[in-house]
Amino acid sequence: MDLPTLHLVLKRELAAVRREIEAYPDDDSVWRMVPGTPNTGGTLALHLAGNLQHYFGAVLGKSRYVRDRDAEFAQRNVPRSELLRGLDAAGAALDATFRTLKPTDLAAPYPEVVAKRRVNTGVFLLHLATHLSYHLGQIDYHRRAATRDTRGVGAVAVQELPEVV
């Protein structure tokens, strides 16, 4: 996979997370617990914003972002406007970092040990993209269950991929 394609897919998924958070009708519903689900949409939005800002922004982009992973799962009742600011900051971290990455960086070891493992940067970035997609699906399910709104937000839209001409 090349860097522009990976960047495009990550931005597409992150934009869909943003649309999901915007689709909740109010700040309370994003935090409503749904039986059988371990996290709310708000928790997952905080987690994704922190994850991307850390692994892309701080580690690869040297942004000085300091992650508080525990707070991502402990905070409650954060307004949607603040969740959206966090997602936008994650998008900015992606953009800034992708401007500095070179294709040869994908073959190098990721600069930080992850889960006590040394991993290849390209493989880890692909992992981060699938992690984002996984939680996007969880947010979509949570929003629909918490609000009883079955409408989609165009998540994982093929129309957002570049067309071959």
Q: How would you explain this protein's 3D organization?
A:
- There is one protein chain.
- By secondary structure, the chain is mainly alpha-helical.
- It has one domain: dinb family like domain (Four Helix Bundle (Hemerythrin (Met), subunit A)), CATH 1.20.120.450.
- The chain is 58% helix and 0% strand.
- It is built from five helices and no strands.
- α1 runs antiparallel to α4 and α2 packs antiparallel against α5.
- The longest helix is centred in the C-terminal third of the chain and has 27 residues.
- The protein is globular and about 45 Å long.
- 30% of the residues are buried.
Highest CATH level, the class: Mainly Alpha
| Tally of distinct domains | 1
Q: What's the total helix number?
A: 5
CATH architecture: Up-down Bundle
Portion in beta strands = under 5%
- Low-confidence regions: none
Range of helix content = 55-70%
Mean pLDDT across residues = 96
**Coarse structural class:** mainly alpha
CATH topology: Four Helix Bundle (Hemerythrin (Met), subunit A)
- In N-to-C order, the SSE pattern is HHHHH
Secondary structure tally: strands: 0
**Can you tell me the CATH superfamily?**
dinb family like domain
